[in-house]
UniProtKB/TrEMBL annotation:
<dbReference type="InterPro" id="IPR036034">
    <property type="entry name" value="PDZ_sf"/>
</dbReference>
<dbReference type="Pfam" id="PF13365">
    <property type="entry name" value="Trypsin_2"/>
</dbReference>
<dbReference type="InterPro" id="IPR009003">
    <property type="entry name" value="Peptidase_S1_PA"/>
</dbReference>
<dbReference type="Pfam" id="PF13180">
    <property type="entry name" value="PDZ_2"/>
</dbReference>
<keyword id="KW-0732">Signal</keyword>
<dbReference type="GO" id="GO:0004252">
    <property type="term" value="F:serine-type endopeptidase activity"/>
</dbReference>
<feature type="domain" description="Protease Do-like PDZ">
    <location>
        <begin position="358"/>
        <end position="494"/>
    </location>
</feature>
<feature type="signal peptide">
    <location>
        <begin position="1"/>
        <end position="20"/>
    </location>
</feature>
<keyword id="KW-0378">Hydrolase</keyword>
<dbReference type="InterPro" id="IPR046449">
    <property type="entry name" value="DEGP_PDZ_sf"/>
</dbReference>
<dbReference type="GO" id="GO:0006508">
    <property type="term" value="P:proteolysis"/>
</dbReference>
<dbReference type="InterPro" id="IPR001478">
    <property type="entry name" value="PDZ"/>
</dbReference>
<dbReference type="InterPro" id="IPR001940">
    <property type="entry name" value="Peptidase_S1C"/>
</dbReference>
<dbReference type="InterPro" id="IPR041517">
    <property type="entry name" value="DEGP_PDZ"/>
</dbReference>
<keyword id="KW-0645">Protease</keyword>
<feature type="domain" description="PDZ">
    <location>
        <begin position="266"/>
        <end position="346"/>
    </location>
</feature>
<keyword id="KW-0720">Serine protease</keyword>
Length: 500
């Protein structure tokens, strides 16, 4: 499992050498000191200290617990400090410390991209950064080349430098969001918490940002490479982050000879099967299930979903992720034996908290007569350990079948607080709400309208997905139960529906 572990190492100390003065008759300009060059580079690497408040999705009315940690960032422009999104997620206070300084300088987040684990922060007062040189961003390192990871890992307060070898360049999951995969650089270097967000440097240029490690392997760390960094910086040029685009299709490899024969395909190791097309996604209306994708932008797709560009093997989605919203790609595909071509205008997929972790947001909820209702998300599933078949099935269908069009949010009854009114109702905890008083529920605001804004019938009736029996509450008793249980459980309000 990928974890938030960060590259680190021993502080690189360059010995001072006594230099002989030249003979009086010789006048030479001394060569630039290597140590001075390194000093400028090191000075632009900053320690980031963060106080966080982590939301409590189990008791969503609570403010959540406070904790803290530290990471690394580095200067890339005037008062522009690049770091990891996970370093500053859920932050309530960010303090930046310069090398060889004890001053803690307040900072704020300018842009944050959870899908690629990058963030740009700035100091409230940029004066202390005057005179520091931004680190230049370079290109992709070669396999088996040496890189240095610079940062402030645990184990000390001073700057640390680790040297490692680029052992792999791959397309792998990013652990921060739990939903996104991008290009990564793997290095064989010691890893420790705290170095996250620090630069990986080669020839005094940044070739990546240290961001995660691999628990199953020793001395293995991962770096976000410059194509991902440059895309993030390009995306925020208009003042906002628009997220990655996607084709909105699922594919299946076609290297099984029997399957290729069944589909009438030649044995040429080409093409992948389209297994689903997300409704309202970029390919909706252009591709269909059982189409065979053959090429993207003229690059042939092999039976494993890979393409070859300039001698390098890439995953199909690497072509897409380098583009932006409203960019186009051309797809060649086979449908019922006929070769076709379509031009696809790319866009982000419909956002859904079912597939990626939510950060920097307060949990939403409704409290009604001892019942706690929350929108389903990865955070909620983790907090309440929701692993039943119905929940998993709905999650799988949510995008594939376009359930989000009718149900922007899936609501779940996460808790049943103990009270005489809720006796024998605890078995309903974890159930997916289908309707309230006979009306299909679209989202949490709609549920609040049905429960608190509309005139209530004598009984409030909840019906659930895949349950044959309803949950029934006498509506007239709910206000008294609310008052009693909210006082007992320190619940400040009957609901929080998010910021307007």
């Amino acid at each position: 499992m990928l974890t938030r572990l960060f590259l680190s190492g021993l502080l690189a100390c360059l010995p001072l050498s006594a230099q002989l003065a030249p003979p009086p008759e010789v006048v030479e300009k001394p060569a630039p000191s290597p140590k001075a060059t390194q000093s400028h580079l090191f000075d632009s690497v900053l320690r980031i200290e963060v106080a966080t408040q982590n939301p409590d999705y189990r008791t969503p009315w609570n403010t959540g617990g406070f904790s803290g940690g530290n990471g690394t960032g580095f200067l890339i422009g005037p008062n522009q400090i690049l770091t990891n999104a996970h370093v500053v997620s859920n932050a309530r206070r960010i303090l930046v410390t310069q090398r060889n300084s004890a001053r803690k300088l307040p900072a704020v987040i300018q842009h944050i991209a959870h899908d690629c684990d990058l963030a740009l922060i700035s100091l409230e007062d940029p004066t202390p950064l005057a005179g520091l040189a931004p680190l230049p961003i370079g290109g992709m390192p070669a396999l088996d080349s040496e890189v240095r990871a610079i940062g402030y890992p645990v184990g000390g307060d001073r700057l640390s430098v680790t040297r490692g070898i680029v052992s792999r360049i791959d397309f792998r999951p990013y652990s921060h969001s739990r939903a996104d995969s991008h290009l990564i650089i793997q290095v064989d270097a010691a890893i420790n918490p705290g170095n996250s967000g620090g630069p990986a440097v080669q020839d005094d240029k940044v070739i990546g940002v240290a961001f995660q490690g691999l628990t199953q392997a020793d001395n293995t760390g991962y770096i976000i490479p410059t194509p991902v960094i440059r895309r993030f910086l390009k995306d925020i040029e208009d003042g906002q982050y628009d997220k990655y685009v996607d084709l909105g299709v699922s594919t299946f490899p076609l290297f099984n000879p029997a399957m290729r024969q069944a589909l009438g395909l030649p044995d040429n190791d080409r093409g992948v099967l389209v297994t689903s097309v997300i409704p309202e996604g970029p390919c909706d209306g252009q591709l269909q299930e059982n189409d065979i994708l053959l090429a993207i932008d003229g690059n042939a797709i092999d039976s494993a979903g890979n393409i070859n560009v300039a001698g390098e093997q890439l995953v199909l989605h690497e072509i897409v992720e380098r583009k932006f919203a409203k960019d186009e790609v051309t797809l060649d595909f086979l449908r019922e034996g006929e070769e076709r071509q379509a031009t696809i205008t790319l866009a982000p997929l419909p956002g859904s908290p079912l597939f990626s972790i939510i950060y920097d947001e307060r949990p939403e909820y409704i409290f009604y007569g001892g019942l706690v209702i929350q929108p389903l998300s990865l955070n909620v599933m983790s907090a309440h350990r929701l692993t039943d078949v119905t929940t998993r099935h709905l999650t799988e269908r949510y995008l594939r079948e376009g359930l989000f069009k009718e149900k922007p949010e899936i609501l779940v009854l996460t808790r049943v607080e103990s009270d005489e009114l809720t006796v024998h109702m605890t078995s309903f905890a974890g159930s997916i709400i289908d309707s309230i008083n006979g009306e299909k529920v679209r989202d949490l605001r709609h549920a609040h309208e049905l429960l608190y804004e509309n005139e209530q019938p004598e009984f409030t009736v909840f019906e659930f997905e895949d349950r044959g029996r309803p949950l029934v509450l006498p509506s007239a008793r709910v206000p008294a139960v609310n008052q009693r249980l909210m006082g007992t459980n320190n619940i400040p309000a009957t609901h929080y529906l998010g910021e307007d």
